[in-house]
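Entry:
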Amino acid sequence: MSPGPSIPSARVLLVAVVVVAAATLVVGYVEAERASEDVTGDPAVERALRTGDDSAVVGPRDEITVVATDSNAFVADENDGPRAQAELIAFAPDGTIRYHQNEHTRYWDVDPVEGTDATVEFVYADHLDADECGGSVCTRNGVERVNLTTGESTDVFSRITPGKHSTRWHDVDRIDDERLLVADIHRDRAFIVNTTTGLTGWEWDAQSAFDPTDSGGPFPDDWTHINDVEYVEIDGRETVMVSVRNHDQVVFVDVERGIREDWSLGSDGDHDTLYEQHNPDYIPPERGGPALLVADSENGRVVEYQREDGAWERSWTWSDERVQWPRDADRLPNGHTLITDSNGDRVVEVDTEGEVVWTADIGFPYESERLGTGDESAGGESAASLGLDSRTFDPETGSALDRVAAAAPPTLVNAIAYVRPRWVGLVEGAAILALLVSLPTLAWTEYRRLGVSASLRWPLTFERK
């Protein structure tokens, strides 16, 4: 057996790996900075906003498309991290920017206002400083209405919750002129509030159906993460559909009688069915249902379940090589599906064959809405009614990175995608990995070469071997 490399030769090799990896990261960062200073290197949307360019930034599409972003890495404040700024943006049918604002810390749900052509209501969160909150940080969660033509906006309703991350409301749906249905992450509940009186008229507390000691996420910090609600009618009874994200399920709550357990989709830990989902849409029998169209986020796919003989059966699945943590999907009247791909930094429309026919590249979108098609999936039919065939991406046909990502736990892959700077691609990621391995190894090699030891007595003394 030939001897392994000597310490000097191993040291030279490790130094070379460190130098090359560090240089790769420096070049990648400098190139990204240069692109951000040169507007031709920006994503089209941000370039248009920075320069006032009124040309098309996305492809043409019928009606206005509105996108709310959780935050936008492309326009983040460099002092506040890569996901510090969010925006609400509307694309006109010709692909130009119809409306834009970035006044709030986060944007979540966005819905059309019935009876209007270009007015929406959206949910926002504003992080408030400690001096505004009695000594500790807090968040103002609110609903705002804006006319996308005139820019005129109106505050509809808001409440302040303590802290930031797990207290921000993600969804509020309008029931009528005075009542709003709220998904309250902070208090693990759904409730109906009268915006005229400010009084709560109905609420459902998740503790009425689940035990906080052995279900969901950590209690009370982020137990249920209720992120979506929808006011529906089931068998002639007023019902609230609730997405209980940390329990991997969608439940149906009869307004008068409580949860209907026989209608629940998924269960805590059943990740084959749903895995920390977002924005389920109910499709009623008159449009081919009952069916549920769901952004199955941690599973990296969009799924639909059809109710057959009192049970939910998966009827449609969609994914492609790029989709990464989708958080919204709407079925359009033409049978297409509008998908919001958060970690994929895009909104896409896929046709009845599963092909992408329209794309808007935008940083970390949360939800999108195509005006003129009804609220969410209100104008669309079920996959079963349309005869849609599933289309999924097989990682074995993709790159080595695709295969590695498929083998890793989805939560790990999505967490890395969530926190990584946008200038870090495959090459830069490999360089970071090389540094994580080579730097400790080089330090150990130097330690052995120098022969330094430390005695564990006071005062601490060092001596050469």
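The helical segments are 7-37, 44-51, 383-386, 400-407, 410-419, 426-450.
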